[in-house]
Design a protein that fits this description.
Blueprint (H helix, E strand, L loop, with lengths): L10 E4 L2 E11 L6 E7 L8 E5 L3 E5 L4 E4 L3 H5 L14
Parallel strand pairs: 1-6
Antiparallel strand pairs: 1-2, 2-3, 3-4, 5-6
Length: 91
């Protein structure tokens, strides 16, 4: 068993090539388990972060620092984008 922090930065490999890298994880709704993986897609898109459902993860290879998913690069492109929102501090 490893910490999810150990997987951040791993390459995300789709069925047809590299789709990005692991950026973070989201908890499932109402439970304390991982529900989805956040992938940073810089390279073929302008530094986007998209959410992939956890069930598409086929394999994690720690020696290769890679996460293999059952999606094509095009399918990853169609996933829901997570848009960060600014946090304003009160003075």
């Amino acid at each position: 068993m490893r910490s999810v922090d150990a997987v951040v930065g791993y390459a995300v490999l789709g069925v047809d090539g590299k789709a990005g890298e692991v950026y973070d994880f989201l908890l499932g709704e109402g439970v304390w388990t991982i529900g989805s993986i956040i992938v940073r897609t810089s390279g073929w898109l302008l530094d986007r972060r998209v959410e992939l459902p956890l069930h598409v993860v086929r394999e994690i290879r720690h020696r290769e620092r890679s996460v293999h998913v059952d999606m094509s690069i095009d399918e990853v492109k169609q996933c829901r984008e997570l848009v960060p929102f600014p946090i304003k501090s009160e003075l």
